[in-house]
Amino acid sequence: MRRSLLIALVPCLFVAASLTATREAHAGPYLGIDLDLGTAFQDQVDFSYGLGARFGWKLYFAGAPVWLLPEVGGHFMSFGSATEIGHADTAFGGVRFGFDGIVQPNVFAHLGLGSIGGSDFGPYGDVGVGLDFQITRVFSLGLQVAYNTVLDNNSNYGDAKWASFGLNFGFDFTRPERDRHRYY
Questions:
Q1: CATH number of 138's domain
Q2: Which residue has the higher pLDDT, 146 or 20?
Q3: Quick one: residue 118, left, alpha or beta (phi over 0 = left, psi -120 to 50 = alpha)?
C-alpha cells in the first residue's frame, strides 16, 4: 500500500516542482471595502444594507492572466424592521479567484463565525461572483453578488440567510506592471 501511494505521489511532486521553478509569482497586500445592499430571506423579504472590509495577499502568476487572493475580513449587515433578527455580524477567511486585465471576473467563497442579533453565534458562509474594473494600477472598482448564511446554534432567531449585492473598492498595493498587449 505504501509503495503504491509513493508511486502516485512522486509524479505529482515532480510536476508541482517543475511548475513552480519555471514560473515566478508576484504577490502583495490587498485591501477591499464592500458597500452592500441586500434582502433577507425570513418570514418576508425586506431591504437590507451592509458594510465590510477584507485584507488579503493577492498572488499573480507569471505567464498566466489569473490571480488568487486568500483573504480575511468582516461584514456587518443590517436587516429591515420586518425581521426580528435586526442585524448579522461576520468574521471570515476565504479565497477569491479571478482573471487579470482591465475587466476582472472573479468567484469567491468564505467560511467563518457569525453573530445573529448581537447575541447568537454560529457558523457563517458565503459564496458569490464579482466583476472588477481596474481603474488605475492600484485601484479597482467592482460589482459583486453573494449568498450569505449564519446558522443559529441556539435557535432563538433561526438561521439568517440573505442575498447581498453591491460595490467593491479594491486597493492592490503591489500590482505588477503587465504587458498591455499580452494581458489586456
A1: 2.40.160.20
A2: 146
A3: left
Q: Identify whether 30 is part of a domain.
A: yes
What mean pLDDT comes out for the span 93-121? 92
pLDDT at 35 over 80: yes
Distance, in Å, from the CA atom of 45 to the CA atom of 162, rounded to the nearest integer, reads 9
The reply to whether the predicted model has a pTM over 0.85 is no
Query: For the chain, how many structural domains are there in total?
Result: 1
- Over 90: is that where the pLDDT of 26 sits? no
> How many other CB atoms are there within 10 angstroms of residue 144's CB atom?
20
102's CB contacts (< 8 A; 6+ apart) are 133, 134, 184
Cα-based torsion angle of the residue sequence 55, 148, 146, 45 in order, rounded to the nearest 10 degrees: -140
Q: Which of 129, 127, 132, 122 is nearest to 159 (CA)?
A: 122
- Which range marks the domain in which residue 69 is found? 24-183
Give me the helices (H) in 40-86, please.
none
User: What cell was used for 172?
Assistant: 492592490
Averaged over 55-80, what is the pLDDT?
91
Q: What are the φ/ψ torsions at residue 12 (nearest 5 degrees)?
A: -65, -45
In a domain, 13, yes or no: no
- To which residue does cell 453591491 refer? 166
pLDDT score of 52 more than 90: yes
Question: Quick check: is 2 in a domain?
Answer: no
**H or E element: which one contains 5?**
helix 2-22
